[in-house]
Amino acid sequence: MIATITMPFSESKSGAFWDWKEDDAQVELWVPIPPDTIKKDVVCVISADHLVVKHTKLGKTLLHCEPLSGPVNAEESTWYLQGEVLCIVLAKQWRGETKSDQYWGALLVPKGGTFTCYMAAHDVKSHRIAREKREKLEEEERLARFKASRQREKQQREAEAAKKEAEAAKAERRRRLHGRQESGTCDEAEALDDEDGSTSRQQTKRSSGVDSWFTLPVAVALGAAFLVLVEIFVQFRKAFVAL
User: Structure pTM?
Assistant: First the structure.
């Protein structure tokens, strides 16, 4: 008697096929196929009581099960290729009155029936284990690429946000500068500094500060001081000549 399956892949019971899972409605089989097999190379015949899979290009039978351990609804059953595996889905005609009637995917055929597979059960199992490892590695690589892509997108968003923030700050400076120019509290050097952004405000102030001290009052004072010095020189010369 076959025990109840509680896991997608049950290795706790022996059977003709190792790579399968089932519930009370259907049985799913994964049959490893020869390399470079395409769909037109495979002929899969599913009937109520038997299953035959042939490889037309190689001229060999991959799987032959007759009679099946339980009746199958051929119209609702299907098969397809998934990479290097042929997946066969057998829809059960009835659920059965006992667990043994409901779950028969491990043996596929009853005692005395015909079961042939071009791969031994342990080879099918080894193929499945290798496939699962490979799929796990591919999934890890996919997740790594996904995380790297998300990280690049995050960095790009941060760079765009920083650029927009800088542009907003520059626009705000120009707005304030415009207001100061209208009120007459902004000099030309500050306006040029904010407009082209190539020279800092402090450098502009230092460069403009060299000439800013020479104003009109300073010029008048320097002229008066010069005249005083000339007058002192003239008087000193006259006194020297008189002696």
Answer: 0.55
As a whole number of angstroms, the distance between CA 22 and CA 102 comes to 9
Query: For 194, how many CA atoms within 13 A lie in the half-sphere containing its CB?
Result: 19
CA atoms of 59 and 61, how far apart (whole Å): 7
Cα 158–chain centre separation? 17
Cα distance from N-terminal residue to C-terminal residue, the chain = 150
Residue 236 lies in a domain: no
CB-CB contact of 14 with 1 (8 Å): no
Residue 72 lies in a domain: yes
Report the domain count for the chain.
Answer: 1
Token couple for 119: 């791969």
The answer, yes or no, to whether residue 77 has pLDDT greater than 90, is yes
Q: Could you list the residue range(s) of the whole structural domain that residue 30 is in?
A: 20-119
Contacts of 236 (CB under 8 A, 6+ apart): none
Here the CATH number for the domain that contains residue 74 is: 2.60.40.790
Q: Is 5 within a domain? A: no
pLDDT of residue 178: 82
Structure tokens at 37: 């097999």
Binned at pLDDT 50, 70 and 90, residue 110 comes out as: confident
Kindly state whether residue 222 falls inside one of the protein's structural domains: no
Contacts for 230-233: CB closer than 8 Å, 24+ residues apart: none
pLDDT mean across residues, the chain: 80
